[in-house]
Amino acid sequence: MKKNMYKIDNSIEKIYMGKNTMFLDMSEFKRVKSKLKGINYSIYYPYKDSEKMIIYTNEIPNVTLFKINTNETLTHSSILGSIMALNISSNYLGDIIVDNSNYYFYIMSDLKDYIKHNLTSIGNAKVTLEEMDLNELLSYERRYMEETIIVSSLRIDNVISKIIKTNRDTVLDKIKNDEVILNCEILSKNTYILKENDVFSIRRCGKYKYVGFIKSTKKDNYIIKYLKYI
Fold first, then answer.
1. Cα 192–chain centre separation
2. Does domain 63-137 have CATH number 3.30.70.330?
3. Ranges in the chain annotated CATH 3.10.290.10
4. In angstroms, rounded to a whole number, what is the distance separating the alpha carbons of residues 34 and 64?
5. pLDDT tens-digit map of 38-76
6. Residue 207: beta bridge partners?
7. Topology, domain 144-229
8. How many CB atoms within 10 Å of residue 49?
9. Would you call 7 helix, strand, or coil by DSSP?
10. Ramachandran angles phi, psi of 104, nearest 5°
């Protein structure tokens, strides 16, 4: 929590100094925006559906888009883990995009040379990075998979535990550590009852949209539908 507050305060200070922030997720963006009084600023979105953005005052931020070239199949979590293993701050990293067998990520350009020379493998896969034109994904829209599960209640902690296949205690820890974002706000109550079209993300587990209740089972459980963003 202290780390998050430092990032918020540091971002606000940069804006008042006429500089740009680093990458902000939607929750961080809303908290920074709420404290910017009497100052003009702009928002940089790398692409249409981007989950991370940058606030700036003068010049458009210097961002690099890399395509990951490999013969192997990669996942969002494996890409994230390998980038974070290079001991860089997550503030420098924008969205990671997995589009069928195409893999991309955004990075603040300050680190592009370091990343290009040091990110040579992801898991057991050998990779090379290709710098792309920023317009390459400008109109990209995220895809999703439709899933159904059986749950005993529509409480968000119960649903999350089923989706990510873990126990409720682990989910409660994630909520306490501000790792669950619901409708662009940090989730504070594990007893929240999901409503149709609620969107929630779980750090390092993905982003989801609750579609709604389908029907009850003979044991009075619920069959529900949700979307997993990919």
1. 21
2. yes
3. 144-229
4. 28
5. 889 999 999 988 889 999 998 999 999 999 999 999 998
6. 201
7. 3.10.290
8. 15
9. helix
10. -140, 160
